[in-house]
Automatic annotation (TrEMBL):
GO cellular component: plasma membrane
Name of this chain's protein: ABC transporter
Superkingdom of this protein's organism: Bacteria
Keyword Transmembrane attached: yes
Similarity comment: family membership: Belongs to the ABC transporter superfamily. Siderophore-Fe(3+) uptake transporter (SIUT) (TC 3.A.1.21) family.
CDD domains: ABC_6TM_Tm287_like
Record GO terms (molecular function): ABC-type oligopeptide transporter activity; ATP binding; ATP hydrolysis activity
Region (Disordered): 592-617
Protein species of origin: [Collinsella] massiliensis
Length: 617
């Protein structure tokens, strides 16, 4: 109930429409309920007394009541539609805005497909429930109360029939709702599963085709689809029981009233018109009970959706700007002070342990390490995508938690491992970096990230439509566009998380050469290829969440076993791109070159690779 009230609180400006809708249904029902009384009078007074004037007058009153009931009914429909669709729109917007405030840790709590379902299907379920249930929700109780009052007013003795029938009916209905309620929860979860499968398949449809997994996916779908059909059948088998219960009660009540009413007419205690009017109320009261039971079933179904939406809205945001936050990052210096980090408080292992690092403003730092060694985790702490579990990360001499989040993230640009472009043109995507960038600035960023190499080949150039998620460009082109976008932010720190992995080695080197000209910007490069980082001022080797070694290319080649193994594996065996790396890097690298030669002569295991468990192997 608390969650229901919470959802209703999102009506906002549509509250007025909802109230108007309720009032109009009350008025509509009241007009409708007066008609049987007028009818009873026509029969008992007008027809019995052959009073044509009276019949005509009552007829006009009946027509007015019917007309007013129709008009209020129509007006209600307009207000109710505005209120329910308005509420739906506001709920979607509230969820969407809330998700914008989520930290990466918050996002880890939800599947992307689940968030999509919660913003679409779940809102639609609530919207449909309210749309279909709004009128009966108000009309049912109103008609029930007025019906009872007028039935007692017409004939209190006959109305006693209700006193017997109504409780039997109410108890039966309560039992059905109690049984069906939890089943609706299960049904909603099954719908969710089906949505998840469909969404995942559609998102990854290219991979499904590439791996010829169509049959497997169809089987998956068939399984959840049949599960949904079975759950629906099970749920509705109980839900439809309300109809026999209601109709049995209705006909029992009608039969009893006809029987007792007939006896009373024969005994002269009741008029024919009174009985006709009374029977109308019987039908209206029983109809209102049908309405109320249906509304209960509808609302029970939407409770699961309400709960899921509240989960999104009430997810506590664990990252926020502090009060009196610093608005300016003075420079691009970075320091990790005894940093440990866990993705979840209850996780057994730390993703980073006791990391101490000092990076001077304007310097270039390479980060190497095996899969899962913590490279991405480390750099994500700099723009405060996650908060440290222990220790502190300092940027520009201040703890990142002291900055305004937007100011910090404007100063620290990160090109994520999973590059994402958005629907729209190249220009629109680039302007994410700087919404006010002039044409020349956009083109300069394109030159630095070597987007210029393919930009002219795109139809329309900078105004080429990239399609959803950048499907119209290659992986390497996408990476270069993401780099250009980050450069446009003119950050003080720029982080490349393996962001040139799909770029050929010559272009990679050319991009690095361009970046090396950016003065005053701290550059952090996570890479798999030694060639991508060997010109860095310092290289950090990570192993299993710990800093294994820090030094220049030359120092590490001389002293660090893991670095030697990676280097050897890439120059001798596995990585065919290595010769290109060294050719290009020799042209603009300084101190590393002599060491390169020295070490490439040393005997290191060919094809050595690097993994999380054992470092180099
Ligand atoms: N969102 C997450 N939730 C929980 N654990 C995570 C999450 N992201 C990463 N991890 C775990 O943290 C550890 C470090 O991961 P991280 O992505 O930092 O490694 P990495 O060195 O960047 O690997 P790669 O080279 O494959 O990108 C891994 O064990 C990984 O499984």
């Amino acid at each position: 109930m608390h969650e229901f009230r919470r959802i209703v609180s999102y009506l906002g400006p549509y509250r007025r429409d909802a109230i108007m809708g309720i009032l109009l249904v009350v008025v509509e029902s009241a007009f409708e309920m007066v008609i049987p009384i007028l009818m009873a009078d026509i029969i008992d007074v007008g027809v019995a007394g052959r009073d044509l004037d009276f019949i005509f007058r009552q007829g006009v009153y009946m027509a007015i009541c019917a007309l007013l009931s129709l008009i209020t009914g129509l007006a209600y429909a307009r207000f109710a539609a505005r209120a329910t669709y308005g509420l739906g729109a506001r709920l979607r917007a509230a969820e969407y805005e809330r998700v914008q405030d989520y930290s990466f840790a918050n996002l880890d709590h939800f599947e992307t497909s689940s968030l999509v379902t919660r913003m679409t299907t779940d809102v639609t379920v609530i919207q449909n429930a309210l749309n279909a249930g709004f009128r009966p929700m108000v009309r049912g109780p109103v008609m029930l109360i007025i019906g009872f009052i007028l039935a007692f007013y017409l004939n209190a003795e006959l109305a006693l029939v209700f006193v017997v029938v109504a409780p039997v009916m109410a108890i039966s209905m309560a039992l059905i709702v109690r049984r069906v309620g939890p089943l609706y929860g299960v049904l909603q979860a099954t719908v969710d599963k089906l949505n998840d499968v469909v969404q995942e398949m559609l998102t990854a449809v290219r991979a499904v085709k590439a791996y010829v997994r169509g049959d497997y996916e169809c089987e998956q779908f068939r399984r959840v689809n049949q599960g949904l059909a079975a759950t629906s059948e099970h749920t509705f088998r109980f839900a439809v029981l309300n109809m026999p219960v209601l109709y049995t009660s209705m006909y029992t009540a009608t039969t009893l009233i006809m029987w007792f009413g007939g006896q009373m007419i024969l005994g002269g205690a009741l008029e024919v018109g009174e009985l006709t009017g009374f029977l109308s109320y019987v039908l209206q009261i029983l109809n209102s009970l049908i309405m109320i039971s249906n509304v209960f079933l509808l609302l029970t179904r939407s409770l699961a959706s309400i709960h899921r939406i509240c989960e999104v809205l009430d997810e506590p945001i664990d990252l926020a700007s502090p009060e009196h936050a610093l608005e300016e990052v003075p420079d691009g210096s970075i320091e990790f002070r005894d940093v440990s980090f866990k993705y979840r408080a209850d996780a057994r292992e730390c993703a980073l342990e006791h990391v101490n690092l000092s990076i001077a403003a304007g310097s270039t730092v390479g980060i190497l390490g095996g899969t899962g060694s913590g490279k991405t985790t480390l750099v994500q702490l700099i723009p405060r995508l996650y908060d440290v579990t222990e220790g502190a990360v300092l940027v520009g001499g201040h703890d990142v938690r002291a900055y305004d989040l937007a100011a910090l993230r404007d100063a620290v640009a990160i090109v994520l491992q999973k590059n994402v472009l958005f629907s729209g043109t190249v220009r629109e995507n680039l302007m994410w970096g700087d919404g006010k960038a002039a044409e020349e600035e956009l083109l300069e960023a394109c030159r630095q990230a070597r987007v210029d190499e393919f930009l002219d080949r795109l139809p329309g150039g900078i105004d080429y439509d990239l399609g959803q998620g950048g499907v119209n460009v290659s992986g390497g082109q996408k990476q270069r566009l993401c780099i250009a976008r980050a450069l446009l932010k003119r950050p003080k720190v720029i982080i490349f998380d393996d962001s040139t992995s799909a770029v050929d080695t010559a272009t990679d080197a050319s991009i690095r050469q361009n970046l090396s000209r950016l003065t005053g910007v701290t550059k952090i490069i996570i890479a798999q290829r030694v060639g991508s980082v060997q010109d860095a001022d310092q290289i950090v080797v990570l192993d299993d969440g710990r800093v294994h070694a820090v030094g220049t290319h030359g120092e590490l080649l001389a002293t660090d076993s893991i670095y030697q193994e990676i280097y050897a594996s890439q120059t001798r065996g596995g990585d065919t791109s290595a010769p290109g790396d060294y050719l290009v890097s020799d042209t603009f690298l300084s101190s590393a070159a002599p060491d390169d030669k020295k070490v490439s002569d040393t005997k290191l295991s060919p094809g050595a690779s690097f993994d999380r468990e054992g470092g180099a192997r």
